Amino acid sequence: LCCCLLVYLLLNTVVALRFKPEQIEDVITLNFQNFRAHEVSVFLELFPVCTLGASFPIIACTLRNNLQTLILLSKGSTAQQGGAGKAAGAWRFVEKVVMPLVVLILPLMVAYVTQNVEMLVSITGSYGGCAIEFIIPTLLVMAARKKIAGYAQSGEVSGMMLQSKFSMGVLSKPFVVYLILGWSALCLILVTINNMEKLDK
C-alpha cells in the first residue's frame, strides 16, 4: 500500500511539473507512453493493470456473494437448503456458473463499449458513491428504526431503554433521514444534468 502511494505521488508530481493541463491524460500513467526507456514506459503503463488485477478477484468474489445473498433474500433460502433435487441442482448451476459469468462479463462489456475513463469515474463515483454512502445507510436506519419500534410495541424490549440507547443526538430526529435522502436525490439530479451537458458537447 505504501509503495503504491509513493509511486502514484511521484507520478502525479512529475506529470504536474512536466505536462500542460490539456496534455494530461485521464489515466496518469498514459502520459509516459513515449518515455525514452521502453521498459520503464511499459511498466508504468501496466502499473494500474497490476494493482487493479490484484484486487479484482476479491471484488469479483464479493460481488458474487452479494448477488447470491440478494437472490436468496428475494427468493427465500429454500434453494440453498436443498428442497427438490432439480431445484438444488439448478441453484448449484446458478451459483457455480451463472453468477461468476455475470461478474466477469459485465466489466468486460463496459471495457469493450467505452474507453472514456472520466465518464466511468463520474458514473461510479457519483451514482454508486451516493448510493453506498448516503442512500443505503439511510434506508437501513429507517428499516432498523421500524424494527425497533415494533419490538417496543410488542413489549419484547423496554421502550425507555430503546429511547435512551438509540434515540440520542441530532441524527435521531425523524426529519434527518428524509433530509439526507432529499439531499442525495438533489445531488444525483445535478450530476445527471452535468453528465447530459457533457454528452451534448
Q: N- to C-terminal separation?
A: 38 Å
Order of helices and strands: HHHHHHH
**Main pleated-sheet profile:** none
Q: Level of helix content?
A: over 70%
Mean pLDDT score: 77
Shape: extended
Q: How many separate domains?
A: 2
- How much beta, percentage-wise? under 5%
Helices, by number, come to 7
Low-confidence stretches: none
Radius of gyration: 24 Å
Class inferred from helices and paired strands:
mainly alpha
- Please give the number of β-strands: 0
Tell me briefly what this model is.
The chain crosses the membrane at residues 97-114, 120-144, 175-193. This protein has 201 residues and is mainly α.
Keywords:
201 residues; mainly alpha; 2 domains; 7 helices; 0% strand; extended
Describe this structure in words.
- The chain is mainly alpha-helical and 201 residues long.
- The protein folds into two domains: 33-113, no CATH class; 115-201.
- Helix content is 80%, strand content 0%.
- It contains seven helices and no strands.
- Helix 2 (38-75) packs antiparallel against helix 4 and helix 5 (117-154) packs antiparallel against helix 7 (174-200).
- The longest helix has 38 residues, at 38-75.
- The two termini are 38 Å apart.
- The model has no long low-confidence stretch (mean pLDDT 77).
- Residues 1-16 form the signal peptide.
- Its main location: membrane.
- The chain crosses the membrane at residues 97-114, 120-144, 175-193.
- Keywords: Membrane, Signal, Transmembrane, Transmembrane helix.
- It is found in: Membrane.
